[in-house]
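We close this part of the discussion by returning to an individual protein. The sequence in question and its structure tokens are set out directly beneath this paragraph:
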Amino acid sequence: MMKGSDIFERIVAPAKGGFSPEHARFVLSLKFTPSMRSRYLKLSEKAQVGSLKPAEQYELDTLLDANSVLVILKSKARVSLRKHGSAA
């Protein structure tokens, strides 16, 4: 069974590049806020000891999905910059 991030990766096709240099640089600037990172770390710690509530598991899964999307988009951005001869 394919996950949503697998489907998204097939649609975006990061290995093909295709972003303008400006768009690629913008995508590479995207990141989680400090509070989102802190929340992710807290939820991850709770998951490791098996104390997540269902709502927290959903929140952690959502953060992980968002991270997967960012990883895919940033991969496409890096490839795009290489194809344009720009530094990532």
Notes: The longest helix spans residues 54-83. The chain has a mean pLDDT of 93. Residues 32-88 form one domain. The radius of gyration is 16 Å.
